[in-house]
Design brief:
The protein is α/β, with parallel strands linked by helices and 401 residues long. It has eleven helices and 19 strands. Helix 4 crosses helix 11 (368-385). The longest helix has 21 residues, at 81-101. Keywords: Oxidoreductase.
């Protein structure tokens, strides 16, 4: 009962809207958002909806970082009950977000399974944590997976479950559409445009100077820049560590449609099929930790050094997935993406005011696609009202200071 009540408390924030506000002195607050991935885009959309003057600073192009490298699976799966509730609330918000912005979301469910004894224990824990919620997990065996997805060859299944309510998106197209909504509400999106200096006056944010040489006066600044979070906070003297977890993603040319689901094998391989027939797969674990791969783990490799190496790694990932999804065997790989997932040191979101820099706010998290609608709404609420929402109490950045 406590778990259900906690979920309802979180969901209550997801059910409302950050509507246009009346601001003191008749002037709309000027809010800068650093980062135009799906988290930054969602924050900008809610801020603009509320009537703020919003300007987004993106050092490369919208959705070019972690968002582009994401499988973009919307799911509640975790072993942490409080975090599960936050994810479930954001899934509910996704349906409202989808309707309001006319976004394309595929709600086809997901199947997770493993043939490894240790990873099977983790799957069983995740299933148990979800069992008391509306996620409605269904335990599956090898035969059960085949019944749900006849095109799969799942092999030995020590543990597994099906989540019927999960979804997935095209992360780049969706982010672009969210930004288009924000700009229609008056927001500006500047790219390529990095923040070089954050100007403070007696500890209060006054504005930023960018790589274009321009100074932008601001009342608030929101950090939503993923793996660049630590570097941005360092500009105001705040030291918070972040991990950048490497991964590999491929897109194939379209193949015959076989599924609307997302698949997670042993928390190492994840894949799906887009409505246009493209197969998308990611390798979650990163490459072996050898001297050759030192640039990857240092965060210095943003693409393969040669087309031949990219093709080799892309084909290798495709064939790993084809072992379980034979339809992929003859597919042609068209894109190979090296990406880095922003990961707070304890794996949980960081969201809230930046200590020591009044007017500065931060959002940094893994699972940005799942969490974007809810965290975007709650961040906008806190920035514009100075409230500290109880549902975010466990995710404050102060826990690392």
């Amino acid at each position: 009962m406590i778990q259900r009540r906690n979920f309802l408390q979180v969901a209550a924030w997801g059910a409302g809207s950050v509507s246009a506000m009346s601001f003191a002195k008749g002037r709309r607050p000027r809010v800068g958002v650093v980062g135009a991935g799906i988290i930054g885009a969602s924050i900008a959309a809610y801020l603009a909806d509320a009537g703020a003057e919003v300007i987004v600073f993106e050092k490369e192009a919208p959705a070019s970082g972690a968002t582009r490298a994401s499988l973009a699976w919307i799911n509640p799966s975790t072993v942490n009950a409080d975090y599960r509730d936050l994810r479930l609330a954001s899934m509910a918000e996704w349906h409202r977000f989808q309707e309001r912005l006319q976004l394309e979301v595929t709600w086809g469910g997901s199947i997770s399974w493993s043939d490894d004894a240790e990873k099977a224990k983790n799957l069983d824990q995740r299933e148990e944590v979800l069992r008391v919620t509306s996620a409605n997990p269904k335990h599956v065996t090898e035969a059960g997976i085949k019944a749900l997805s006849p095109y799969l060859e799942p092999g030995e299944t020590r543990a597994g479950f099906y989540l019927p309510q999960d979804g997935h998106i095209d992360p780049v197209a969706t982010t672009q559409k969210i930004l288009a909504y924000a700009t229609a509400k008056g927001a500006q999106v500047l790219h390529p445009c990095s923040v070089d200096e954050i100007r403070l006056d007696r500890g209060q944010v006054r504005g930023v100077r960018t790589s274009t040489g321009d100074f932008h006066p601001l009342d608030h600044l929101v950090s939503a820049c993923g793996t660049d979070t630590s570097a941005l906070l360092a500009k105001v003297g705040v030291k918070i560590g972040m991990n950048a977890v490497p991964g590999l993603k491929i897109h194939t040319h379209p193949i015959a449609p076989t599924t609307r689901k997302v698949y997670d094998f042993s928390s190492a391989l994840e894949w799906k099929q887009m409505p246009n027939g493209e197969a998308v797969a990611i390798y979650v674990g990163g490459p072996p930790k050898t001297p050759t791969h030192e640039p990857v783990y240092a965060g210095a490799l943003r693409s393969h050094p040669t087309q031949e190496l990219a093709a080799m790694h892309g084909e290798s990932l495709k064939m790993k997935v084809a072992r379980y999804w034979p339809a992929l065997k003859d597919a042609r790989v068209k894109d190979v993406i090296v990406g880095y997932r922003p990961m707070p040191l304890d794996g949980l979101p960081m969201i809230g005011k930046v200590p020591g820099a009044a007017g500065m706010y931060m959002v940094a998290t893994h699972s940005g696609v799942t969490l974007a609608p809810l965290l975007g709404k709650l961040a906008a609420q806190e920035v514009l009202t100075s409230e500290r929402l109880a549902v975010l109490a466990k995710y404050r950045p102060e826990r690392f200071l």
